[in-house]
Amino acid sequence: MKKLLTFCLIGCLGAAWVRADDSHTARSELVTRVETCEAVLREFMASSQTAIPPGVWHKARAVMILSQFKAGLLIGVKGGYGVLMAKKPDGHWSVPVLIDASEASLGLQVGADTVETVVIITDDATTRLLFANRFNIGVDAKAVAGPKSAEYEDYAEKVFIAPVLVYSRSVGLLAGATVKAGHVQRNDPANFTLYNTRNTLPELLYSDWVTPPQEVQPLMSYVQRLSP
Questions:
Q1: Structural domain harbouring 15
Q2: Is the dihedral angle over the CA atoms 32, 33, 34, 35 positive or is it negative?
Q3: CB–CB of 44/51 below 8 Å?
Q4: 38 φ/ψ angles, rounded to the nearest 5 degrees
Q5: What is the pLDDT of residues 48-78, one digit of tens each?
Q6: Could you tell me which residues come within 8 angstroms of residue 116 by beta carbon, excluding any fewer than 6 positions away?
Q7: Helix, strand, coil proportions of the chain in percent (round to 5)?
Q8: Is-above-0.85 flag for pTM?
Q9: In this structure, what are the phi and psi dihedrals at residue 195, rounded to the nearest 5 degrees?
């Protein structure tokens, strides 16, 4: 029992470590996070095995790009970061808003693994769930594995009954399966630093109050091409 409690304590400390306070994170590191998420998306789209079909992009109202890792012997800890972008009523995509992506869970997990995920959200209401700070994919909104290009015609009608479509590099998922990819939450301190503003997630997603800095424009342009 004492050993189990020790492992639990280690896991809790690990979870606290991976979800670091970003209020003092250097802006250059936050820019690197955005650039990493752009690279993740480009790599997904460059492979026929992971590319998201044009029909899914056509339905997209928001996209989350997550870079996570999991590690632990008895306690599995998943931590990481991501960006959230929303499509505005005029068809233009928002600036990438930094979010926290982390999860701690009990279970026999050995080693470490990187998990890269692209989440397509097909309605505006689901995106707004993040306004309340925390959103659990697959719990707060139904999520299914997104169809690959070759599967799209067969699965299109079935898939779009769920507002969240998940594409992941680390787990083999079948279209139509229920997905729980962990929780994500707002990271307003990181965005204050990245955009030099006191505007929070809702304003960054749906207003034009912030001029996109040069570092985030390549990702914005790429998503705009994918989903004009």
A1: 2-226
A2: positive
A3: yes
A4: -60, -45
A5: 888 999 999 999 999 999 998 766 655 555 6
A6: 40, 43, 44, 66, 67, 68, 168, 169, 170
A7: 40, 30, 30
A8: no
A9: -105, 0
